[in-house]
Amino acid sequence: MLIARNVTKNYSNLEVLKGVDISVSKGEIVTIVGSSGAGKSTLLHILGTLDSPTGGEIRINDVLTKGLQGKKLADFRNRHIGFIFQFHHLLPEFSALENVCIPGFIAGARKNAVKERAVFLLETLGLKDRLDHRPNELSGGEQQRVAVARALINNPAVIMADEPTGNLDSHNARELHQLFLSLRDQFEQTFIIVTHNEELATLSDRQLVMKDGRIVGETGR
């Protein structure tokens, strides 16, 4: 589903990624772990087409991403990749339902269909009574669930999550872990997750260990 080959990234004379290879199958949860500065977030941003590699190539659903630029790349990213970040990045002036709908509207889908799917996702994630609440009326865990629903709205091939539990307490972090597993089982949703959270890492299908810009180890359940 996602294949990356010999991915490198340089910033002037600083070599951040040094030839990374990754293959991820549909319905797989893969975590990327390692110390700060290992290159985890840089790799995730490149896999998610938010940044460009210096060298190497990435294919998502058999599409070579380096062949896409400008609007074509933005459209591909919106339709095929979902994002979850440590800080939820919800728009404060919009309700939970409106925040979830935004990527669907950007994709040009029918408004009624987008709203129906957004309601379905929010209800599935336990937020049936929070549809009209703005972010400042939601708990941290609820805000992160809204962010998960937003990431799912366009039925993406893969969700990229960068420290998704980093801003949550232990209870909400465990709930989010279980939510990822449920989404994998229910929708065959694929996740690539950068995390320092050992519990989340051990619950994944595979853990990739990064050090000094390289994948240096792999473990799996």
Q: What is the CATH third-level topology name?
A: Rossmann fold
Largest sheet: 6 strands, mixed
Provide the residue-averaged pLDDT.
90
CATH superfamily: P-loop containing nucleotide triphosphate hydrolases
Per CATH, which architecture? 3-Layer(aba) Sandwich
Provide an overview of this structure:
By secondary structure, the protein is α/β, with parallel strands linked by helices. The protein has one domain (2-220): Rossmann fold (3-Layer(aba) Sandwich), CATH 3.40.50.300. Helices cover 37% and strands 28% of the residues. The chain is built from seven helices and ten strands. The strands form two sheets. A six-stranded mixed beta sheet has the order 6-7-8-3-9-10, sandwiched between helices. The protein is globular, with a radius of gyration of 17 Å. The two termini are 20 Å apart.
Record the SSE blueprint:
Elements: E1 2-11, E2 14-24, E3 29-33, H1 40-47, E4 55-60, E5 63-64, H2 70-80, E6 81-85, H3 96-106, H4 111-124, H5 140-152, E7 158-162, H6 170-187, E8 190-194, H7 198-203, E9 206-211, E10 214-220
Parallel strand pairs: 3-8, 3-9, 6-7, 7-8
Antiparallel strand pairs: 1-2, 1-4, 4-5, 9-10
Helix pairs in contact: 3-4, 3-5, 5-6
